[in-house]
């Protein structure tokens, strides 16, 4: 009699090879280990020992070799180092995008698209007669030649101004975005890992902007005691430092970057636990980690109001559940007339969304 081996059905693993299943785990662990390959593989060995994630046909050694063959990791035998590649960095960002935004319902809202015709990216299927001020680039020569043939005949071809047809393109508004990420010590305080969900949101947003809106500009700023720019490729490696939270420095750098951008549409995404604790006054740091310091929060609120006057909306991703911090983020967002996502630490795919411009409130899954 032929025997059958039954195992627990896992719909997420359906159709995936053993390598692909292990790659999902590996990518998740890299976010927690700040891109440290050796530590991530060590954790995988522990998981394999405890939960048997590999089998007799395909072991952890096979997985590591396939990672090398497929270009996910590179090894330097002389230095004894092993690193992830740009392919893996992008893979982490794509997985974060799917995890954070994969369950959102499809909608036409959120496109930077206007209903105004003009010089733009996408051709409009409709044509219209030539008008004074139209450029040569806008002329649809196929339609114009057809008009000339209809109006004047084929035998003696001639083309007049009345024959010219103009094909306009639908204008697509370009946007300049600054993504701010809090890397202060409070992002791992009291045993709560806030930096990992923060990095996931940051990588998801960066992947969304760079793939869906390639003509937009994206700058990334991290802030602790001070603020400084980083590249998209650095996101998986971000670590929390022994810093306070100088939200003011981050906002000032974001505003300075956006002033130099020529796009009329500008915005800031800020990922934080919501607790500003530091100011730089001259060469001196003014710090207070005990509660919300009015001197610091007032500066934050003033900058939020300045951004509102400059028509720079701020969308805050609140990676914490502390009620008094959420109240401050609410006041900050209301001052800017912006938007806020109050995220749960254990349910990254779900946010309480507040739009203070329209007054809408909803849960986004």
Notes on the structure:
The chain has helices at 18-32, 37-51, 60-69, 86-101, 141-152, 195-212, 247-259, 294-309, 323-336; strands at residues 73-76, 81-84, 113-118, 122-129, 165-172, 175-182, 217-223, 227-230, 265-272, 278-281, 284-287, 314-319, 339-343, 351-355, 360-364. By secondary structure, it is of the alpha/beta class. The chain has 3 domains: 15-84, Arc Repressor Mutant, subunit A (Orthogonal Bundle), CATH 1.10.10; 114-171, no CATH class; 175-364, 3-Layer(aba) Sandwich (Rossmann fold), CATH 3.40.50. The strands form 4 sheets. An 8-stranded mixed beta sheet has the order 8-7-6-9-12-13-14-15, with helices on both faces. It has a 3-stranded antiparallel beta sheet with strand order 3-5-4. A two-stranded antiparallel ribbon has the order 1-2. α1 (18-32) packs across α2 (37-51), α1 (18-32) crosses α4 (86-101) and α4 (86-101) packs across α6 (195-212). The longest helix has 18 residues, at 195-212. The chain starts with 17 loop residues before the first helix and ends with a strand. Residues 1-6, 103-110 and 114-122 have low confidence and may be disordered.
